[in-house]
Amino acid sequence: MPLLKEYYRYIPQRNCERSYCKKLHCVYIQKRIINDREFVLLYDVNRSKNPDFPYWNYERFELDELTNAECNAEFRFYKNDIYKLADARQLPDEFVAYNGLIV
Length: 103
Known about the structure:
Blueprint: H1 2-10, H2 18-30, H3 36-45, H4 68-75, H5 79-88
Helix pairs in contact: 2-3
């Protein structure tokens, strides 16, 4: 696709974050590097499929605070079964996500 080849010529790195790419699209259209049609196409290509959830607005998740009925409704397992499943899968109590978040 020739449009994308031209587009990537202006991107400093191909694995840029979506928010950075969106800002870059706006700069490119302001400087007339790309036209309106290319902007719309590229904006759609780089649109996030997942909504942004501000995790800092939510309380910390505590499994112990949920009832058996809530666990069954949310996870389709009873609370004791979740602990048994974690033991069977040998899941650690904490782990570090790819972005450095300790879970």
